[in-house]
Write a structure and sequence with these properties.
AB_hydrolase_fold, disulfide bond, alpha+beta, 4 helices, 4 strands
């Protein structure tokens, strides 16, 4: 999963890593690992994480803005 640290499209940015807004408000987020969705493993994300199959990448920049070099170095290995 890729988080674009200056994302102007996705708000809050932490949701790019399956973060969630905490219940009852619209400012604070909880991480994927703190969420009930993860703890109850409804989507298999906890199992994937424990098996080392979830990767959390972050890059400077706005929504989907990355160089070919960054893509080749960080994403391409997962597509092979």
């Amino acid at each position: 999963m890729v988080k674009f640290l200056q994302d102007s499209v996705v708000d809050p940015v932490d949701t790019e890593w399956f973060g969630f807004l905490k219940t009852g408000q619209a400012k604070e987020t909880e991480t994927l690992q703190e969420s009930d969705l993860y703890k109850q493993d409804r989507l298999g994300l906890a199992a994937m994480d424990k098996a080392g199959k979830l990767v959390f990448l972050a890059t400077e920049g706005d929504h989907l803005q990355f160089s070919k070099e960054w893509f080749d170095a960080n994403l391409l290995p997962y597509l092979r």
